[in-house]
Design a protein that fits this description.
Pathway: Amino-acid biosynthesis; L-leucine biosynthesis; L-leucine from 3-methyl-2-oxobutanoate: step 2/4. It contains 15 helices and 18 strands. The protein has helices at residues 6-15, 39-49, 75-91, 103-109, 141-150, 175-186, 201-204, 208-216, 232-242, 305-308, 311-321, 339-348, 350-357, 407-416, 432-436, and strands spanning 24-28, 31-35, 62-65, 94-96, 118-121, 135-138, 152-156, 159-166, 194-199, 225-227, 265-270, 277-279, 287-289, 300-304, 331-335, 360-361, 382-385, 401-404. It binds 3-isopropylmalic acid (IPM) and iron/sulfur cluster.
Length: 441
Amino acid sequence: MTGKTFAEKQLSEKSGRDVRAGDYVEADIDVAMAHDITGPLAFRTFDEVTDGEGSLFAPEQTVFTIDHHAPADGVQAANNHNALREFAAEHGAHQYDVGDGICHQVLVEEGHVGPGDLVIGADSHSTSYGGLGAFGTGVGSTDLGTALATGELWFRVPETKRFEVEGDLPDAVYAKDLILKFIGDVGFAGCTYMAAEYGGSTIEDLPIHERFVLTNMAIEMGGKAGIVEPDERTARYLEAETGSPPDIDVEDPALHSDSDAEYEAVHRYRAEEIAPQVSVPSNPENAVDIGEVEGTAVDQLFVGTCTNGRFEDMQVVADIIEGEELPPDVRMVVVPASGAVYQKMLETGVLTTFVDAGAVVQSAGCGPCAGYHQGVLGDGDVCLATANRNFPGREGSMDSEVYLASPATVGASALYGEITDPRRVETKRFDDVALAQGARP
Ligand SMILES: CC(C)[C@H](C(=O)O)[C@@H](O)C(=O)O
Ligand code: SF4
């Protein structure tokens, strides 16, 4: 019998059974999350299954955020926000409000998630939590509504596809380029209902904010979960970010795949061979080396989202555009992933750099990522975004186009108003642990 993968171990642990890929389990949930779009729907199910008299399985482990339409862009959104506030207050759950930020960023910053947690979120990018060595997955509002009452959910234990990268990343190549490359190679359905596990020396060297980029976009290839096994860096990050070390040993074998674990497939890469990637409209799987699209004119640049809206991402862009002005016919929309990111941008002068260059810096949240507000695209508009999705109409008009790239590529492109290879400019990397410990960027 071969060893087990991280996913098999986690779902064995949470179900109290010795299970393998393909088995079905009822597992205990550690953390449940919903936001301003999916929360009100989940509450309806919750009330149905509990006859309107239910209590949460664990209020302390239930988190609601107001991020997708924040601040409210219409009456319906405002009413949804009120419904969420009321439900959270009535049931004693954690609730984050307008300006606090995107669910996936807030849950991490506020210490709600740690290694070894089973996290369900009524949002598809809940795979993000794997960046801390948690098993995070997105569920529908109905599943979430039921789990809020029972604290359990059924799962099919996923097979695991491993992406293994060795060596040093070249200048101007970031985690975003890695994940676009992976998605391009396996396709948008290449990891359907599998865990995407990322490992190898390159991944081990990545700061946590970069690991989140990989796990966040696991869903863009159909992944049930995205996983980077936790290590010393995870522990240091959690301590620096939340003030307390994780209450679990990151070296615990339960949080690591066995060396003889059985994978569905292992894809191997050399970091040195990877060029900056751009995903062309209208599917994240359309990843190409940047040389193929250099010179494509853009109308809008968007820096933000749960993929690349962290402080370190903002700093990468700011370093490139500092002292420059955007070309007159280009607009840049900047949306910090959380209020804490916004605050840090303010304190470090990054916000001023953006404003001086002619960018619009908006309140923390999802912004125009899913086409709701704060920078929606019109007919014929072309946007280069640090986001995770570029489906038709994703950021607005069905006749608009979205290209996806790293913050460095968006920063370099901002200088010229066209897609520009970030290797043409000076780029830096930032270590989130060092920054959280007070180092100057
Ligand atoms: C609105 C929400 C359900 C949706 C998701 O689950 O992904 C959104 O966050 C997105 O990115 O499209
Ligand atoms: S930032 Fe975009 S991808 Fe992330 S949760 Fe919000 S809408 Fe979804």
